[in-house]
Structure formats: C-alpha cells, structure tokens
C-alpha cells in the first residue's frame, strides 16, 4: 500500500524514482517563469514505508532553514531507507535570490500565508499550490522549517498546531505532532491554537497529518542552528521508521509554552531593553517606541511573566509590527 501511495505522488510530479534511488528536479509552477519552479529532492527507500515531507526556505532570508534540509537531502542513502523522503530546501526562490524575507517579489506576498494556494493565482499562490497538491497531501508527516532573518533574534523552538482536523478526516498514524516535536530535540515547544491558517503546517494538520514548525538560528549561516535542523529532521525520520536506528536524544528536558506577542503601538523608532532568553515579569519594561523627534514615548511592557523568546532588532518599526514574543510555561 505504501508503494501505491508513493507511485501516486511520483505520478503527480511526473517523474520516475525506482526503489533504492534518488531524484532531484523541480515542481513546475504553471503560467510563470521557471525561476519560480520549486526544487525538490526525492529519496526513495529500497523497501515500502511512510512518506515524510520537509519544507525549508518558505522565507528567503532564513538561511539555516535552507542549509539544514539541503545537507540532509545530500546525505540520505536511498539503499538504507524505507518509504520516501521529499525535501524542498528552498520553497521561495524569488525571495531567496532577492535577499528578501516576507515581501517576496513580484507581488509582495508572504508565502507562509498562502497555502494551500491556487492553480490560477499569483506566482506565489501557485508555488503554494504546487507544494500542497504534489507533496503535502500525500505526507505521513510534514516538517516546516524556519529561523530568524537578519532583523530578528529568537530562541530555538518548535510550534505544534493545536486544532482538530476537519470533518471526515481520519488519517491516524502511529506518531503524533507532539512525538515529532519531542524528536526535534529543541527544549521549547509552543502550542499554537491560533497559528496562521495559510501556513503549510496548519494546512497539513487540518488534513489530519502530524505536522510541526521548527525554528532555529539567526539570519547568518550558523553551524549550531544547521545541526539542530539536521538532527531534528533525521530524528523524525528514525521515529517514523524511514531511517534505521533510535533517535539521537541528547536533551530530554522539554518546556511546553504558550507565546504572547507584543506589538508596536506606533510607527517610529524602536529601542529594546530586554534580550532573548531573559526571564521577565508581567508589566516589566521591555523597550520603548518613540516618534521621529524623541518627544513622544511609548513604554513597551510585558503582558505576562515568562521568558523573552523573540525580538525584532531593527530600529524602524511600524504600528502593529511584532516587537517581542514572551514564552510562558504551560501548566500541567
């Protein structure tokens, strides 16, 4: 049965990948330049097994979420696998080559908000549709990878979507999204009941597919962050039985948290006073936003007690921009 499902996936892409072999090529994005086609590496094991889909580079400036899966794709040996691993190292080539993050050319859209996409939409809506229709809908697990860009600082964390699959969806598998999050070996795991519905992880979770979103690293290439993603991906593949052996768990402690977002009250200049990883108390001053002349000031206070998990480090801010996220431990 797993071989039948793999053949359906390959037929949708239009390629032949015999058992025990690897294929690399592009998902065609119809109606637009080949510059928007999505690179993918398919590694098919010698034996039947589950299908894992790994998506990196949704945002063009998050380089560690691109390099980590690229290295895994290069290193996987198809003769030592069961099932199929589909890895997209950089989903958003337009943003990557424009050195952009969210405002991707040519239409300024954010690919992370466009899934499952549309076959008749904008360029990036069609990119999302190609990934959703040709890969995500066939998966037994989906990993969506991110990290900080050049204007952000974060602590590594894993988002777990907390919503029920849609009506009539069953798709039970012998692992859950919490299993996958534990396997990623990141200490902070954040439950996300209100994550944006247009992200790959939420589209997949709504279809009953165990899915997680993992973030690690800064805007620069960071070997530590790359190793986090590399180990996380391969651990998940071991948990699924695609790779042989036990997951490499070297950090058994996990903190389950909820993130609270702190937004900018005005456009102007942003001056942070807190740092990532700093424990803070409710109402503690995290920073300030001023007008262009420094006369009007808004103190930014913590809405809850917890740990600073994210800071926007650019001086320029617009009203409504996210400035901080505060991680609060979930009570058992």
Question: Explain this structure to me?
Answer:
The protein is an alpha/beta fold and 332 residues long. The chain has 2 domains: 238 residues, 3-Layer(aba) Sandwich (Aminopeptidase), CATH 3.40.630.10; 73 residues, RNA polymerase II/Efflux pump adaptor protein, barrel-sandwich hybrid domain (OB fold (Dihydrolipoamide Acetyltransferase, E2P), Beta Barrel), CATH 2.40.50.100. It is built from 7 helices and 17 strands. Strands 1, 2, 3, 4, 5, 6, 7, 8, 9, 10, 12, 15 and 17 form a 13-stranded mixed sheet that branches. Strand 7, helix 5 and strand 8 form a beta-alpha-beta unit. Helix 2 packs across helix 7. The longest helix is centred in the last third of the chain and has 17 residues. It is globular and about 65 Å long. The two termini are 39 Å apart. The mean pLDDT is 91.
Mean pLDDT: 91
Beta-strand percentage?
A: 25-35%
Q: Would you report the number of β strands?
A: 17
**Tally of distinct domains:** 2
């Amino acid at each position: 049965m797993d071989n039948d499902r793999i053949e359906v996936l390959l037929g949708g892409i239009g390629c032949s990948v015999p058992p025990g072999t690897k294929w690399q090529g592009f998902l065609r994005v119809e109606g637009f330049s080949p510059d928007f086609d999505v690179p993918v590496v398919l590694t098919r094991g010698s034996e039947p097994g589950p299908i894992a889909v790994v998506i990196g580079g949704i945002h063009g400036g998050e380089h560690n979420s691109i390099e980590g899966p690229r290295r895994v794709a290069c290193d996987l040996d198809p003769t030592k696998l069961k099932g199929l691993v589909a890895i997209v190292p950089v989903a958003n080539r337009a943003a990557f080559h424009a050195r952009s993050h969210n405002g991707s050319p040519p239409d300024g859209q954010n690919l992370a908000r466009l899934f499952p996409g549309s076959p008749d939409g904008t360029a990036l809506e069609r990119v999302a549709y190609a990934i959703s229709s040709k890969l995500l809908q066939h998966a037994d697990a989906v990993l969506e990878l991110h990290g900080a860009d050049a204007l952000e600082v974060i602590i590594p964390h894993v988002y777990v979507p907390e919503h029920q699959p849609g009506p009539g969806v069953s798709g039970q598998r012998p692992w859950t999204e919490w299993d996958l999050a534990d396997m990623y070996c990141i200490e902070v795991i954040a439950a996300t009941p209100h994550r944006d519905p247009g992200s790959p992880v939420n589209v997949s979770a709504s279809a009953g597919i165990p899915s997680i979103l993992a973030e690690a690293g800064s805007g620069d290439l960071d070997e530590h962050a790359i190793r986090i993603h590399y180990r996380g991906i391969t651990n998940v593949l071991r948990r699924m039985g695609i790779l042989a052996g036990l997951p490499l768990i070297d950090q058994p402690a996990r903190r389950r948290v909820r993130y609270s977002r702190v937004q900018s009250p005005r456009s102007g200049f942003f001056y942070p006073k807190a740092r990532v990883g700093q424990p803070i108390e409710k109402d503690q001053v995290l920073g300030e936003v001023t007008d262009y002349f420094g006369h009007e000031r808004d103190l930014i206070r913590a809405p809850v007690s917890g740990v600073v998990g994210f800071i926007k480090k650019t001086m320029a801010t617009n009203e409504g921009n996210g400035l901080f996220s505060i991680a609060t431990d979930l009570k058992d």
